[in-house]
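The following block was generated as part of the benchmark described in Methods. Ligand: NAP.
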Amino acid sequence: MRRPHVTINCAMSVDGKIASPSGKQLRISCEEDIQRMYELRNASDAVLVGINTILSDNPKLTVKKAYVKQPQHPLRIVLDTHCKTPTDALVVTDNAKTLIVVGSACTKHYGSNVEVAVCKQTANGLIDLESFLNMLSQRGIKKLMVEGGSTVIWQFLQKHLVDDMYVYVAPMVIGGTNTPTLAQGDARAPIELSLVNANKLGPGLLLHYRLIP
Ligand SMILES: NC(=O)c1ccc[n+]([C@@H]2O[C@H](COP(=O)([O-])OP(=O)(O)OC[C@H]3O[C@@H](n4cnc5c(N)ncnc54)[C@H](OP(=O)(O)O)[C@@H]3O)[C@@H](O)[C@H]2O)c1
């Protein structure tokens, strides 16, 4: 199977939480990590999130000029089986390009910078990641950055479709029984990683992992 190089990037607390207990966005990254995140985004051909991240955080997923002098604005991708991306979401209302990947034809109308592509679904109703990544390869996408949330990260890990994973660990504990964690979904065998680097970054720690094939 042909696929792009896949890099997961995520920020979490010491107890593995990636958002506030209500699931809303919380500033977990330090300034140095935000700088690194924008540089990684800018060096990628595409950045990806799941629909729940769009609905909870309403991110733009662009590259800010304050962090990168000449932003390239990678293609923004939303995995959105049932085409729930609102027509006024920030990810579809500016000039950068967006690809919404759905499971069946969508009747919503987005701007001219937005493409809606139908992709094969798995038995559990999610977008089939192997078919999706193959589609990206055919479009010339070589470097894909996966930004979350928990479900998306888990699906990529579980299917071993990840090359590199960067996790910023902030010196905070968020708590909460249902607070989203780094990876969530039906668990099978543990996914083994090898640690490439662990460096102090600002007040926290940046961990770089690779997947053990
Ligand atoms: N700290 C960080 O770095 C960071 C970064 C991003 C997000 N977050 C947080 O993550 C949380 C959201 O995570 P989440 O787990 O609820 O949702 P998510 O991962 O953002 O989106 C998951 C949804 O995407 C759709 N999807 C379609 N195909 C999929 C596939 N193959 N694999 C996975 N998902 C697929 C499914 O919805 P449909 O069936 O409806 O299509 C699925 O329920 C928010 O609280 C957000 O703040 C944190």
